[in-house]
Design a protein that fits this description.
- The protein has about 325 residues and is α/β, with parallel strands linked by helices.
- It has eleven helices and 13 strands.
- The strands form two sheets. Strands 6, 7, 8, 9, 10, 11, 12 and 13 form an eight-stranded mixed β-sheet that branches. Strands 2-1-3-4-5 form a five-stranded parallel β-sheet, with helices on both faces.
- Helix 4 links the parallel strand 4 and strand 5.
- The protein is elongated and about 75 Å long.
- About 35% of the residues are buried.
Length: about 325
């Protein structure tokens, strides 16, 4: 059952919201102020997926409460409820990443639709990156394929087959989801990369699209260094990764069929990054020559044997990063 938290200093409002939303199958929790709400979320981190919070409350106000809850668990859907519906407060809430804005008085049917809408929007962001989601809001589904310069990063677990045979299903799920995908995906986003997809235990990140970045290559290399440091800090989990990075011109946009579409990129840099990742040893970062040129002087590298692309005579210069960037 989905957990929902109502935060309001008025008991009548809490009671009314509980009555309306329990019909939709939520396990409803309540708190009368921001501090109690934050403590409740800390105790029930995995049990609450939506928070509806009054804007104006004594002590910690609603916006501060929702911002702090977002820090505790970024996956929680956060909805602002207020009778003080000013444009300023609405803009402030949106800028803080709040998922929805409901004004008092409200009709129960409208409230329930809005909560479902906000929750669905938040869940969609787990399948569509934040950057692509914003582009879709501006352009709709018409993010037409276009040639763009980008940097591609591939990351993969070393010895994954052996791990999967040695661990139980629950242990493998915990290792992959909690100790690998969650921190690696977070690091890509922290470096303003677009999380393209998971391919088995592989992760594909893209820098420079859909939002252009003059320093896309540097962001990707810094991201790779942060990934290595994260894994090193979790060495008790027995994880080791390899990373490949390539820079160049790609075709970026929405591709697919009427049944399934996705924003992704195609082109030689994608193939090169994938090949570099497969060649990388344990805890090694390999980058192409173009990436090296764009980050030259930032981190020491040494040249290794060139990569010969399958089906062509083209050789790609390859460099190994000697240490992780701060």
């Amino acid at each position: 059952m989905m957990g929902l938290l109502i935060v309001d200093d008025e008991e009548g409002v809490r009671r009314s919201l509980r009555k309306a939303l329990e019909h939709d199958g939520y396990a409803v929790h309540t708190a009368r102020n921001g501090r109690d709400a934050i403590e409740l979320v800390k105790r029930c981190m995995e049990g609450i997926e939506t928070v509806i919070c009054d804007f104006k409350m004594p002590g910690i106000d609603g916006l501060e409460t929702l911002v702090e809850i977002g820090r505790l668990n970024p996956e929680i859907t956060r909805i602002m409820l207020t009778g003080y519906a000013t444009m300023e407060s609405a803009i402030e809430s949106v800028n803080a990443g709040i998922d929805g804005f409901i004004t008092k008085p409200f009709l129960n049917a409208e409230l329930r639709v809005k909560v479902r809408e906000c929750t669905l929007k938040r869940r969609l962001k787990q399948f569509v990156s934040e950057e692509v989601f914003r582009e879709m809001q501006k352009e709709g589904m018409r993010i037409l394929p276009r040639l763009r310069k980008a940097t591609i990063l591939f990351c993969d677990i070393r010895g994954f087959t052996e791990l999967s045979e040695r661990l139980t299903g629950d242990e493998l799920s915990e290792l992959v989801n909690v100790k690998y995908f969650s921190p690696m995906d977070r690091i890509i986003c922290e470096h303003d990369g677009t999380l393209d997809k998971h391919i088995g235990d592989g992760i594909m990140g893209v820098f420079g699209v859909p939002v252009a970045q003059d320093d896309a290559a540097l962001r990707a290399v810094r991201c790779a260094g942060a990934m290595m440091r994260e894994i090193a800090g979790r060495n008790s989990a027995g994880l080791s990764i390899g990373i490949g990075i390539s820079t160049g011109e790609v075709l970026a946009g929405i591709f697919g069929s009427p049944r399934k579409k996705e924003y992704t990129v195609f082109g030689p840099p994608v193939n090169v990054a994938a090949r570099l990742e497969s060649r990388a040893g344990k805890d090694q970062i390999l980058i192409c020559e173009e990436t090296m040129r764009e980050t030259q002087g930032i981190a020491p590298v040494h040249r290794v044997d060139p990569l010969v692309m399958k089906g062509t005579l083209r050789k790609v210069g390859v460099y190994a990063l000697l240490n992780s960037l701060p």
